[in-house]
Amino acid sequence: MFVTFEGVEGCGKTTQARMLAELLRGRGVEVVETREPGGSPIGPALRALLLSDGSDLLPSTELLLYAAERSEHVARVIRPALERGAWVVCDRYGDATRAYQAFGRGLPREAVERVHALATGGLEPGLTLFLRLPVEKALTRARSRNSTSSSAEGRFEAEEEAFHRRVAEGYEALAREFPRRIRPVDGGGSREAVFERIRGIVELLLHV
Ligand code: TMP
């Protein structure tokens, strides 16, 4: 089973992905926890390029770099894991490209879909958990985390609020477009409260 987590930065998805992986492992399931950008062998180099404050990339370059990493990620990490029966829990995947590069940057959706299909061979998650949190709240969290960490991954957090609103609206539109796959989850409250919501969905849909 292939499960992805999505949402604007600061929505809490990374913590929730880790909690889900732990729950599944506790039930005897083999879990591969991974993320985009960054989960493939070329991921760390591409992540640094894509997220560093100093990179000045055209939207089309950005799209192609995310897709390049995804192509390696799917072929070398995700498919092999799924083929041996493991679960893959991935922090961001194709919906991030749709939300950020199409809705956020304004690239044509059909171009985004073509590039995504080439990179993945059509592999889509069985379940996508979309963590919903008001943009102002999520961004405050993401920016304060970045200012206290040593990472230089601030390129997207530095974008204007209007960009993040387009991304958030993009995720809402995607949830309407793919209602069977994308499940919105209220990201408000404690991490335990959010996880209870996720656990409910996963147990109901995936019978674990
Ligand atoms: P994260 O570590 O908070 O998930 O940050 C990854 C950043 O990369 C986030 O700002 C969203 C962005 N991103 C895209 O723009 N397109 C993509 O396809 C992916 C996977 C991430």
CATH superfamily: P-loop containing nucleotide triphosphate hydrolases
Integer-rounded radius of gyration:
16 Å
As for the number of domains, it is: 1
CATH topology: Rossmann fold
Q: Largest beta sheet: what is the strand line-up?
A: 2-3-1-4-5
Q: Which outline best applies?
A: globular
Identify every distinct bound molecule in the structure, by name, code or SMILES.
thymidine-5'-phosphate
What is the averaged pLDDT score?
Answer: 94
Helix content: 55-70%
Helix and strand composition category: alpha/beta
Give the amount of beta strand, in percent.
Answer: 5-15%
What is the helix tally? 8
Number of strands: 5
SSE diagram, text form:
Layout: E1 2-6, H1 13-26, E2 31-35, H2 43-51, H3 59-83, E3 87-91, H4 94-104, H5 109-120, E4 127-132, H6 135-148, H7 161-177, E5 182-186, H8 191-206
Parallel strand pairs: 1-3, 1-4, 2-3, 4-5
Helix pairs in contact: 1-8, 3-5, 4-5, 4-7
Bound molecules: thymidine-5'-phosphate (TMP).
Residues 9, 36-37, 51, 66, 91-92, 96-97, 100-101, 156 line the site of thymidine-5'-phosphate.
Description:
The chain is α/β, with parallel strands linked by helices and 208 residues long. The protein has one domain (2-206): Rossmann fold (3-Layer(aba) Sandwich). 57% of the residues lie in helices and 12% in strands. The protein has helices at 13-26, 43-51, 59-83, 94-104, 109-120, 135-148, 161-177, 191-206, and strands at residues 2-6, 31-35, 87-91, 127-132, 182-186. Helix 3 (59-83) runs parallel beside helix 5 (109-120), helix 4 (94-104) packs antiparallel against helix 5 and helix 4 (94-104) packs across helix 7. The protein is globular and about 45 Å long. The mean pLDDT is 94. The structure holds thymidine-5'-phosphate. Thymidine-5'-phosphate is lined by residues 9, 36-37, 51, 66, 91-92, 96-97, 100-101, 156.
